[in-house]
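Notebook entry, cofactor series.
This is the third protein in the set we're modelling with a bound small molecule. For this one the ligand is glutathione. I'm keeping the input format identical across the series so the outputs can be compared line by line later. Sequence and SMILES below, as received.
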Amino acid sequence: MIDLHFWPTPNGWKVTIMLEECDLAYNIIPVDIGGGDQFKPEFLRISPNNRMPAIVDHEPLDGGEPLAIFESGAILEYLGDKTGRFLPQAPRERYRTLQWVHWQMANLGPMMGNANHFKNYGRTIADDPKQLEYGTKRFVGEVDRLSGVMDAQLSVNEYLAGPEYTIADMISYPWAFLIGPMLGEGMWETFPNLKRWVDQVHARPAVERGRRVGRDLGRRERTEAEEKARQELLFNQTNDKVRDAREAAAKASA
Ligand SMILES: N[C@@H](CCC(=O)N[C@@H](CS)C(=O)NCC(=O)O)C(=O)O
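Returned structure with ligand:
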């Protein structure tokens, strides 16, 4: 059995989609990132960067002790190796896939996260809306550029890494389908190959199931005070928070 430490966000859905595609048994352990679960000592032992998703595989690939993994790219690569599915083993095809996995982790995910922050959340935090202008321009511009990169790749390949559906598609899709709301739905005309691929991945039953996991977890209405506390927790993280968490963990294990 695999424990999945999860909250319903694009990074979380990458893993539920892969688990559903591979028909693996898993157990959801909610990590309420707005309520601070990511700083709990027991979670930090699994995921020291205080981010979900993370997994603990109780029947790991090497047959040894339970294995904990954080970072969605590493988790999908591990599950690909464990099942022999969606990550080719032949070196040429494997690296053709992994380069797009790393591309997503270093580009599409962080740029979309920052674009969303400046465009949507920043407004409620910044004292002066002018503070948001440069960040919005920079990150929304990057999302536009990255959409073009995907569109070009998908104009000559059915899927991101070539002719086959792989973990590169599963890791990119949960962010890519949000490009419409971010850049404006009209932009699909500029990126028709990207739109064709988004629709194709979207139509897979396992993708639909993966996106439904934990849907109710994030749906609870928050009071104004709860929303303020959530933003303070998520958008104001410095080493102070990491140090506090480390001290709490040391106390808990003393
Ligand atoms: N590169 C990481 C990113 C994970 C990530 O940013 N997770 C967010 C939710 S989408 C999180 O756990 N945030 C908690 C926090 O900011 O404290 C991955 O792909 O696993």
